[in-house]
Amino acid sequence: MKEKDTIYENLFRKVAFRDDEQAFRELFLEFYPALCVFAMRYITQEETARDVVQDVFFKIWKNRKSMDITVSFRNFLITSVRNHCTDYLRKQEVENRYQEENMLSVIHTSPEEVYTLKELETTIGEALAKLPPNVREAFEMSRFKGMTYIAIADKMEVSPKTIESYISRALKILRIELRDYLTFLLLFI
User: Fold this and answer.
1) How many helices (H) and strands (E) does the chain have?
2) Which domains does the chain have, with CATH numbers?
3) Within the chain, which residues score under 70 in pLDDT?
């Protein structure tokens, strides 16, 4: 093992002192596959793990003149990949937290909006109560339970065309009953 470490150290010296691209390519080809597997212990997405390893090699090439490696080159690579994985995961956690906070701020509404939403909810309930029972039942199964017209027709023992007619009638009545809330609905939906 010590012999291989010496070979890697010599290759890295060629990279650092002579800008030897062939030596760098040899190091890359030797370590890249194993480092990708290692990175996937931290990052489960294969493409991202590969990107992290490539970033490590890119930084090595970029900083080759100023790097001072005090451990074996192999250990240096492993430590670098682990640190880059940790940095990536930390960054992802911050981004996820930011997105969650943004979603919560979108959900939070002013007291006036909450009042208007409650008022709208009450008005929708009253509008639904005005529908004939069979029309209301078909509409609720379609819109609130996500059932297809065919499934509703089977359940209500009528034709799908009849269900289509019921839904059309319900929407027509609801448009009239909820006309005052149309602008509000367009803003929030």
Assistant:
1) 9, 0
2) 2-106 (1.10.1740.10), 111-188 (1.10.10.10)
3) 1, 102-117, 181-189
